[in-house]
Specification:
By secondary structure, the protein is mainly β. It has one helix spanning 3-20, and strands at 26-33, 38-47, 50-57, 63-65, 67-70, 111-113, 119-125, 144-149, 166-172. The strands form two sheets. A seven-stranded antiparallel β-sheet has the order 5-8-9-1-2-3-7, with no helix packed on it. The chain has a two-stranded antiparallel sheet with strand order 4-6. Residues 66, 68, 70, 86, 147, 149, 163 line the site of copper (II) ion.
């Protein structure tokens, strides 16, 4: 590397430093099964290009499971129906592959749980926000809930994606750290 290149690299580092140390707003939510079993957590981090969602799950049935953001900040067992329908402030239909879609609460892929009954998924979506002042905020109107379903989401069938029962739930409320 030439001296000029080193100098440019240093200048870039110094210029970026104030931003590199600014902490992104984040919120971590525990998720529980209907019998109270700890099934992991989801961490929401507000980035410039959208909301980053990182799910770390355990103690779940092997296979693919739909994951959605539902409209109420309520997780009453055993059926978690209190979480209501999918979060849908934009008034669309269900499914990432639906031409009339998608709900704000729809996520781009299913959660895959392996033979060890654990799994992880990460998404960055520009149609959700952690900013409580935003109309598509997961904290708007008292918050929302993250639901894991028994079956995978077919990404098309309105309004549920044929995802079956709700097997785990986490209440999404503040405060954002
Ligand atoms: Cu759902």
């Amino acid at each position: 590397m030439s001296n000029i290149r080193i100098a440019l690299a240093l200048a870039a580092c110094l210029a970026a430093a104030p931003f590199a140390h600014a902490k992104s707003p984040t919120l971590t939510v525990p998720i529980h099964a209907a019998d109270g079993t700890d099934v992991g957590k989801v961490t929401f981090t507000q980035k410039k290009n959208g909301l980053h969602i990182h799910i770390v799950a355990k103690n779940l049935p092997v296979g693919d499971h739909a994951v959605h953001i539902h409209q109420n900040a309520k997780c009453d067992p055993p059926d978690f129906k209190s979480a209501g329908a999918h979060f849908n402030p934009d008034g669309k239909k269900h499914g990432m592959n639906n031409p009339m879609g998608h709900h704000n609460g729809d996520l781009p892929a299913n959660l895959t749980i392996g033979e060890n009954h654990a799994g992880e998924a990460s998404f960055t979506v520009n149609y959700l926000s952690l900013d409580a002042a935003s109309p598509n905020s997961i904290l708007a109107n008292g918050g929302t809930a993250i639901i894991i379903h028994d079956h995978p989401d077919d990404m098309m069938t309105d309004p549920t994606g044929n995802a079956g029962n709700r097997i785990a739930c986490g209440v999404i409320t503040g405060p954002v750290q």
